[in-house]
Amino acid sequence: MPNACSLHIGLNKVDPNHYSGWNGQLFCCENDALFYSEMAEKAGITDRKLLLSSGSPNSEMPTSANLDKHLKHYKKNLKSGDFLLITYSGHGGQIRDLNFDEPDEVDETWCLYDRQYVDDELWEHFSQFEKGVRILVIADSCHSESAVRVIDSEKDAEMERLMTEVFNKMQLVQRYAPKEITFPTAHKHKQEYYTATHKPLVIKEDVAASVLLMAACRDEEKACEWDGFGLFTSTLRKVLSMNKQITSYEDWHDKILKLIPKIQHPTIRAYGYGADLFLKEKILQTGAIKSQFSFFIPDHHTAQPAAAENIIIDFGKSQPAVKATYEPAVRMKRDETANTSIYLTKTPDDPSTAWDSAYKEYFELKAAHPQVFVEPDIKSKYLKETPLSKSAGDNNYMSGWPKPPATLGIDEFIWHLDDNHSQLKAAAERVREKLKLTHELNNVPHDMIRIAHIDTGYIPTHPATPKYIMADAGTSFVNGEADNKGTDVPRNRIKPLEQDGHGSATLAILAGNYIQKADSYAAYEGFFGAIPFARIVPIRICDTVYNSFNANDVASGIEYALEMGCEVITMSMAGYPTRRVAQAVNKAYEAGVVVVTAAGNNWTRGISKLTPKAVMYPARFDRVIAACGVCYNEKPYDLAANEEEMKLRSEGGDTMQGNWGPERAMQTALAAYTPNLAWANNNPDYKYRFSRTGGGTSSATPQIAAAAALWILFNREQLQEKKYKGTWKQAEAVRQALFRSGGIDYPGYKKYYGNGSLKASAALDMSDEILALELQPAEEASVSFLGIGKFVSQWFRSMPTKEGMPAAMQPDDKQLQDMLSVEIMQVMYKDPALFDYLDTLDLDGADQDYFNRPAAMDKFRNAIKASSYASTTLKALL
Q1: For residue 276, what are the domain limits?
Q2: Most-buried pick from 251, 388, 563, 573 (CB within 10 A)?
Q3: Predicted local confidence at residue 105, as pLDDT
Q4: Are residues 260 and 327 both part of a single domain?
């Protein structure tokens, strides 16, 4: 009777000593391995081995030596007709191809605990199996399509632009080992990798066994975790439970492909002798069971999944720099002498559980630390405007929105900079002349103003990359990118189309370099950016604005900007309110730094329910300038205000509009120009390196930041004489100059623009007037509407004591009231059913007494209780 064996590998972590300090934290890979072992058991395989990174009982560590040991055993003992199942769940990596057998010049790897295991090593083992042995490999990792690749025809190198409802709504953990880790690691341990990377070429004719690879995704894609397992494994389980009749491996693959969300494209490859027949076999035919394979999903032996969600614990003392460790098994040692420490919470798919963990931690700490404050490191999703949604050959303006006429000639390319709009071109020229800078900008002094650009990073090869980018000073707060200097790294590390490009586009508007005619439409040649002589510090906080960015990373980015001596911060993103970010904003303002962030965007159709229309955070803080939108025709970046012009609107960027309101939020808002701006793109299919369809408040934000920097430079001597530099007075002086010079031609400017539309040169004209003002500091950034605070306070006072209620929960517990206020605020920004409270009520102004009415309070409380975004703790208390 034929033998059947299986080997199941699952790594939730790797050895940081080998991987340059990176522990490769994942959460569901061992679940996968346990599931596949149970699947093998149901198929009648009794010889099963587990390699688990946790060192669980009845398992071995997933090291290269252990994998080699088992593969050598199978090579020696398996004969023709025998069956071997190998499953791998963990990080997929890439290293340089040193034996030149890969068309893309990289070898794919499995990230084992002690080192990367190269695909060449796997294939050398497989080539030594006897003829007729059937080897099924199931790989749930990134780059898994060719994890056991042999020389074959070159695959299609074009990746589809993938976005599904699942990916819009859930931040997925990805099984991806960054090249910044894998390449240096292989080089550092090159002697250890020498044998693995210098294997002789193996081609199909050399293989006697039949090898079948079922892979989670294409080589250029990332494999994600979902529902306690890998997304591929989770889908495979569903297919098995739904289908009692699976006719072949091809049929199995087809059913998985139809069911899996289209952010991954599982593949199936067959190699070696009899491979085509292997594809058509009934699945898991080991020779030890009947021809019909029956299966049921086991409900045991699988650990509960954890998510990489942190909570922030503030002990109310001096503020240190904070960075997450993303180590779920071992919580960071609590440093109660410091102000802030980060701990992991266990938050599966339900985001509200992060707040439950925060409250639990608070009640445990309250007695010993009366001033403690706990909040989740909440994830915000800033949905990206899609200026490149049209075909590559169609570089036209969005027809529904106002656009510059072709009669502008070459100035069509920089219409937003002209005297009829932002006046940035004139303002920059005035500052250049005052500083005696040459037209070529070759004599910019080393102490030139620094601007921090917080975004997705930048693409160094783009022609618009600023002339004075401080490349060595850049940084990344994206997990696993400790050595990244703020560059936009391609997500599959190969194809430029997978670079987000959002950061490069906003950076070009801020300080873009000299553009040649060949790179621009309208035959423009010259500097593109509003302040091309500024020194720019690139700070990367997420790899794509389709993904979530963590509040702690935003705060860390702001604090890093202060450390680097930046006087202006621009961030074309918006999200939910958190106290951690509020603290960072206050710190920046008090140091004299002007902070400009996007007000946010919303849509009229499709994904419109995912974001409110009101100004989002950090833009809603009084100490931040909220960047709103104004169109070419000086009308608001709002569909209703442009009703006549919007008759031809269509899906995509045409139905996106800028956020504004309510009235109180507009007191520190200013509008700049969007949409239909030149938008730097990285698409090689485009004739030019810019699209005409730049939009969103992302385009407006860097314009205002540039104007702020120009005003500081124009008034540098006076600011120093008045000792404003380094104090809140410098930031407030700049803000007042921009606010008081704003364009007010549009009758309803206060509603949509706040302080008007940006007029940078007019702001310079007001310098003497502004410097003579008796300045007053802006209200401190706080994460609570006045109305919300009153609601929570009054509710506490009227709340009867309940059995089992924590002793720390007293009517005068200000810290807990603040925590509840923050969560309620976040729920309001997440739940579409509550958007009206943000969009139509001015809870900081005229409507702040709204919650004093019992009927209104009851209605609001019931809405929070009904929200799926509210924590169990909050609902129980309500």
Answers
A1: 4-280
A2: 573
A3: 52
A4: no
